[in-house]
Automatic annotation (TrEMBL):
It comes from Physcomitrium patens (Spreading-leaved earth moss). This is Glycoside hydrolase family 19 catalytic domain-containing protein. Residues 50-178, 186-237 form the Glycoside hydrolase family 19 catalytic domain. GO terms for biological process: carbohydrate metabolic process; cell wall macromolecule catabolic process; chitin catabolic process; defense response to fungus. GO terms for molecular function: chitinase activity. The keyword ATP-binding does not apply. PANTHER family: CHITINASE 12, CHITINASE-RELATED. Residues 1-29 form the signal peptide. The active site is at E91. Keywords: Disulfide bond, Plant defense, Signal.
Length: 237
């Protein structure tokens, strides 16, 4: 076997790696054909704070979240983007908030639950209140999300408020791994996010929660209209 023969497998591996990378990069950006930067800034989140940018969302939507907005038919993809943006708009006030509003020190300290796997940090105050586009909360979510995206969020929760890419990654982690992505309807995404308070039958259901749920539905319908897709059925929970 010649030196050239020995080199061929490596060339092939490099070529395959380049192809895989191009496919992953292409998949992560597929939804950007109908969610442009102009639409993000002017239609979906007008007046959003400078912290949140279209480019930071695109960066966050790379591996391991390449199935976000890329699953099923084109209409399925559009409905998922509309649902995600509707929930983000409700949770973050239209991407105008980095963290939970009106949460005082006592409130911030309350987001610490007993967890053998993800105990609250002892090196700093255990402030695991809502942060990011979908308001990631509680120490066990910070820990699990951090493990998934490879960042020490349990030890350094403020990373979410300091990096827009990280902030969007936390939203995508919840969306893709905690139920919304696999939901069969928009109501399913709301149940996964705040069903205990906003959906009938929830342990802490209230009229105020019901109003919040209806607000999410209106955002979703509006975004579906912009994308030219039928919102489907089973929107309220």
């Amino acid at each position: 076997m010649t030196g050239c023969d020995l080199h061929r497998p490596m060339v092939a591996l490099v070529a395959v790696a380049a192809l895989v990378l191009s496919l992953v990069q292409g998949a992560s950006a597929a939804w950007s054909t109908f969610i442009t930067k102009a639409a993000f800034d002017q239609t979906y989140f007008p007046g959003h704070i400078a912290f949140y940018t279209y480019d930071s969302l695109k960066a966050a939507a790379g591996a391991p979240f390449t199935q976000f907005g890329n699953s099923g038919t084109l209409d399925d993809q559009k409905r998922e983007l509309a649902a995600f943006f509707a929930q983000v708009k409700h949770e973050s006030g239209g991407l105008k908030q980095k963290y939970e509003q009106g949460c005082n020190i006592q409130c911030q300290q309350s987001y610490c639950a007993s967890s053998p796997t993800y105990p609250c940090s002892k090196t700093q105050p255990p402030y695991y209140f809502g942060r990011g586009p979908i308001q990631l909360s509680w120490n066990y979510n910070y820990g699990a999300c951090g493990d998934y995206i490879g960042k020490p969020l349990l030890r350094e929760p403020s990373q979410i408020s300091n990096s827009a890419v990280t902030a969007f990654q936390t939203a995508l982690w919840f969306w893709m791994t905690q139920g919304p992505h696999l939901a069969k309807s928009f109501s399913g995404t709301t149940k996964a996010i705040n069903g205990d308070i906003e959906c009938k039958g929830g342990a802490h259901y209230s009229e105020k929660g019901h109003e919040q749920m209806l607000s999410r539905v209106q955002y979703y319908k509006s975004f579906c209209s912009v994308l030219g897709v039928d919102p489907g059925t089973d929107l309220e929970c």
